[in-house]
Design a protein that fits this description.
This protein has helices spanning 2-16, 21-30, 34-40, 49-61, 67-73, 80-93, 95-104, 115-129, 205-213, 220-233, 245-254, 276-289, and strands at residues 133-138, 152-156, 161-164, 171-176, 189-196, 239-242, 262-267, 295-299, 307-313, 316-323, 332-333. The chain is an alpha/beta fold. It has two domains: 2-104; 112-333, Rossmann fold, CATH 3.40.50.
């Protein structure tokens, strides 16, 4: 129970604060409410409990005509204590349905705004490799980050810079607090491959509702971005594979499917759901596969929250870039030049 209380306390202070007053307040009340804590205890250890709990409540309430549904629709116009009492009553009435969701749903936030820092990283890699790119995303959810060249970008820095698809209906805006980015070239992507234990089908209204339910109530722009990214998604051909990356990655290398391209394997805010053993197995697997073809590995939450860019070739790993304290939803990042 103490571990659960710590998770909600950390979520309130590190994530919800200044982003979601509703979730911040609910966290503060949940940690003193034994009934809700006993319910939330049933969420699997592999899942971030606050995220899955709030997502499940929002998802379930969206399908019922209740006062709680209206709280989610207008979170800035509520009495916080009254909203918590509505949450408590809803969870009491629908505990069985929530327990089912805890066992059948996954936290799969497909945050397209993270492309704001991935795109310039990929551009830098392409310039160095002089090859088309093969993108392989672990924990791809619906695969929206595999379409990152279909979006337009405005980076707030001095001087500002824009890049990407100028005709895109989706413009991603982010702040760069680090070294100014001076040039970002267009991407030549030959393969787009996503791997997930549970691929989200954006054409399925129920699965799309689940993705929307993982977005915090006050974050209207995130919802709008998801809607626009959904309309772009079908324009890009990709392979979305369901299963364990440990089994799905090796055949892609063994069959030389990705030959004559630079492979980039990336995952953002996914490894926090990996066990220590699984993290070790991923790194070991990438070193083995790099004897067949070199790999750029882009990730966070393996050991810390910083975004790392590693180059792996012939079993040797070299860290080439680190972006420190990158915002989890891609609102800001701190650009660094490659490490020497």
């Amino acid at each position: 129970m103490e571990k659960l209380v710590t998770a909600f306390r950390r979520f309130a202070s590190d994530e919800a604060k200044n982003n979601s007053p509703l979730y911040e307040y609910w966290c503060e009340r949940i940690i003193t409410n034994e009934q809700l804590l006993n319910l939330i205890m049933h969420i699997p250890e592999t899942q971030p409990k606050p995220n899955l709990f709030f997502g499940s409540v929002q998802y379930l309430s969206a399908q019922k005509d209740t006062q709680l549904k209206r709280i989610f629709e207008n979170p800035n116009e509520v009495n916080l204590e009254e909203s918590f009492q509505l949450l408590l009553g809803f969870c009491t009435q629908h505990s069985d349905e929530l327990l089912h969701l805890f066992q059948t749903k996954y936290v799969q936030t497909n945050e397209v705004q993270r492309a704001s820092y991935l795109y310039p990283i990929f551009s830098e890699i392409a310039e160095e490799a002089k090859l088309p790119l093969s993108l392989l995303e672990i924990g791809t959810s619906a695969g929206l980050l595999l379409n990152l060249d279909g979006y337009r970008y405005e980076i707030e820095q001095e001087p500002p810079i824009s890049f990407g698809n100028e005709n895109s209906p989706l413009t991603i805006i982010a702040k760069n607090y680090g070294t100014p980015i001076t040039s970002v070239k267009s991407l030549n992507i030959s393969h787009r491959i996503g791997i997930d234990l549970n691929i989200i089908d954006l054409q399925d209204s129920d699965e799309f509702l689940w993705l929307k339910s993982l977005i915090w109530p006050e974050q209207i722009i995130r919802r709008e971005n998801l809607e626009k990214a959904r309309s772009i998604h079908r324009q890009y051909s990709k392979f979305l594979l369901t299963g364990d990356f440990r089994k799905l990655l090796p055949p892609l290398f063994d069959n030389h499917v990705l030959k004559s391209s630079q492979i980039i394997i990336f995952h953002t805010h996914v490894a926090n759901q990996f066990s220590v053993t699984l993290k070790s197995e991923l790194l070991s697997l990438l070193q083995q596969l790099s004897h067949i073809q070199s790999i750029y590995h882009i990730y966070n939450n393996m050991e810390d929250k910083d975004l790392h860019v590693d180059f792996i070739n012939a079993g040797i790993t070299k860290n080439v870039k680190i972006l420190e304290n990158t915002d989890g939803h891609g609102k800001f990042f701190r650009w660094n030049q490659p490490l020497k």
